[in-house]
Design goal:
alpha+beta; PepSY; Nuclear Transport Factor 2, Chain: A; PepSY domain-containing protein
Length: 167
């Protein structure tokens, strides 16, 4: 640091702190694609979280007889952890066999959100699959020029079923 004045030192220190707390560099869509490609998985839930200071995506996936959770580093897309402790009995109890049939007909989450982001220029912040009163849908928290919106999308066609602007 020879030859640098006190102001330069402060600027370098602030710059170092900013690098240490970098925001996510991969998108929800990128994280979903990583989880889908790591096995023949159907993503049922994705959301941003933190492990200490590390931004991560927590992704729940299902396929055939098991469900798993992936923890993906939001800075670089590296899979940090994969838990496969949730087995068929838990899946059937929580989600129900009839709801599993809806998920089998659903398109992959990445094939639903990629055209949404492309068409609108917005970004998906989180998404989850659910079935309520016999209607399956992806609930997607979405950020666009009009602000945050909760979208409900048909899991087969990707068409909007409903939306709720965030207050």
């Amino acid at each position: 640091m020879k030859g640098l004045g006190p102001l330069a030192f402060v600027i370098l220190s602030i710059g170092s702190a900013a690098v240490a707390q970098r925001p996510a560099t991969i998108s929800v869509l990128d994280a979903v694609r990583i989880a889908e490609r790591s096995g023949n998985w159907q993503v049922t839930d994705v959301e941003m979280d933190h492990w200490g200071k590390t931004p991560v995506y927590e992704i729940e996936v299902v396929h055939a007889a098991k469900s798993e959770e992936y923890i993906i580093d939001a800075r670089n897309g590296k899979i940090l952890r994969q838990n496969s402790s949730l087995m068929r009995d838990f899946w059937e109890e929580v989600f129900g066999r009839s709801n599993e049939a809806y998920l089998k007909r659903a398109r992959s989450l990445s094939s639903i959100i990629a055209p949404l982001e492309s068409r609108t220029g917005g970004k998906v912040l989180s998404a989850s699959f659910d079935v309520e009163d016999g209607t399956a849908y992806y609930e997607v928290e979405f950020l666009s020029q009009i602000g945050r919106t909760k979208l409900y999308l048909d899991p087969v066609t990707g068409q909007r079923l409903n939306f709720i602007p965030d207050d």
